[in-house]
Amino acid sequence: MVKRPRPYVHQLDHHLPTSAYPSGHVAATVCLYGAIAILVLGHTRGWWRWLFVALAIVMPVAIALSRMYRGEHHPTDVLGSLIFAALWLTATTLLIKPNAELPSRSPGAVGAKLRSFTGRAVSRA
Questions:
Q1: I need a labelling partner for 57 at 20 to 30 A (CA). Which of 18, 23, 28, 67 fits?
Q2: Which stretches within the chain are classed as H helix?
């Protein structure tokens, strides 16, 4: 995105043809694991759903550290990717609302939803 040179360290890879800023690997990891955690938190109950939140934290940190260790990114490249991915996740979550409550399939619940929407009783004849 930005023509920023890669860090001047002994790199484990050969010369990489693209610029360093921002780190696409970190941004993609944050978006993927963050989206999975958002969906799991909204649609499940139980202690194990927090494992997905832990993955959403651990995986991006691990990828960011590995990219900096390999000499492919500066810390600010990673920080820019984290900010971009956080904004992207926030925008898509607010626009799509993946955890919006779905109406129940029972007939009583549908009638209650219709009554609350119209303000009057609805006959199901």
A1: 18
A2: 24-43, 50-69, 75-96, 107-118
CA 87-23-56 angle, to 5 degrees, is: 55
Question: Measured between alpha carbons, how far is 52 from 6 in angstroms, rounded to an integer?
Answer: 32
Query: 22 preceded by cis ω (within 30°)?
Result: yes
Q: How many residues belong to the chain?
A: 125
Task: Indicate the pTM of the whole model.
Answer: 0.63
The answer to whether 47 and 103 have CB atoms below 8 angstroms apart is no
Instruction: Specify which residues 24 forms β-bridges with.
Output: none
Structure letter (DSSP) for residue 48: G
pLDDT value for 97? 79
- Residue 112: is it exposed, middle or buried by C-beta count within 10 angstroms (0-12/13-18/19+)? middle
87 pLDDT band (50/70/90 cuts)?
Answer: very high
Q: Are 54 and 61 in contact (CB under 8 A)?
A: no
